[in-house]
Structure formats: C-alpha cells, structure tokens
Specification:
Beta-Lactamase, alpha+beta, 5 helices, four-stranded antiparallel sheet
Length: 167
C-alpha cells in the first residue's frame, strides 16, 4: 500500500485541530505530536510530525508513538485474534500508554496507526479516525471494540466532525 504523505499530513493536522475543540478532550491546549504508521507488520514505517510542540516534547512523543506501535504489533504476534489496541497493555507507571490502533484484515499482516502528543484518549481517537479514513477498517463494530477497551469518549465526537468535513 502506498500512502499520499502530503494528504496524510493535512488530514492528521485537521484531526489535531478538531481534537482541540471537542468538549470531551481533557487537554485542548495540546496542539501536535508524532504520528507513526506501520504497514505490513511494520515492515514499512512512516513517522510524521504533526502540529506544534517543543523540541523537548518531540523526543518524548517520538519515543511514545513508536513504542506504542511496536508493542501493539508484538502483542498481535502473540494473540492475533484479540489484539487491537495499545490500551490493552497500557501501564502508565512504566510509560506504556494507549494511543495505537492495530488494523488487521487477515492473519498474515497488520497495519498500525499510533499517535502521541495529545492526551491518550485523543491520541487513540486520532489513530482510529485516521485508520477509517485510510480504509484500513470499514466495520463500525471494530471501532466499538476499540473504544470499549479504553472507554474512549473522544472518538465518536471526533469522527462525527471529521466525517462532516470534505478532506
């Protein structure tokens, strides 16, 4: 799969902007982060800088975004039937956070979207919304499974506003 990275930047920046206006977002002042997209079991990886943040935050967001992606991929390799989110192995006390979503259409490969820079629920909502936008998933039951794990109240608001825009 080939991604149009320029268009992807526009979409991801739009999602960050949307997140800042959502009533459910606990940290509306956060305005950027690092997006990691892993295709074909992370054999193809894109790391994109989205929005605004400080140089110190960049290092942290990069580390967290990639850690989430690799962790959810490793979890999927162990349990392909049940792994869909980094929230499933979240351990904040050792810097393991939610925000990555794993999209798998078969037992052979997965695609992962991970974001770090907003709060965890907004990170996950952005990842999940972007996955739907890219066509990684089309089944609404999948989103329900993901948001039930994290009790994500941000996703539905974000997805509704994003769907109304023509991006």
């Amino acid at each position: 799969m080939t991604l149009d990275l320029e268009k992807l930047l526009v979409v991801a920046n739009s999602l960050v902007s949307i997140s800042q206006k959502l009533p459910s977002n606990a940290n509306p002042d956060r305005s950027g982060g690092i997006l990691t997209i892993g295709l074909d079991n992370l054999s193809v990886r894109h790391v994109l800088e989205i929005g605004n943040y400080t140089p110190r935050e960049k290092e942290r967001y990069l580390r967290f975004s990639q850690e989430k992606a690799y962790r959810v991929c490793a979890d999927w390799l162990r349990d392909q039937d049940n792994t869909i989110s980094s929230w499933q192995t979240r351990q904040p006390e050792i810097d393991r956070y939610g925000g990555a979503v794993l999209f798998s259409s078969c037992q052979e490969y997965c695609n992962i979207i991970s974001f770090s820079g907003l709060n965890e629920l907004s990170d996950e909502a952005l990842s999940l919304t972007l996955g739907y936008h890219l066509g990684f998933e089309t089944n609404s039951e999948f989103a329900e499974r993901v948001i039930n794990i994290s009790k994500n109240i941000v996703f539905k608001e974000m997805y509704k506003i994003f769907s109304e825009q023509n991006i």
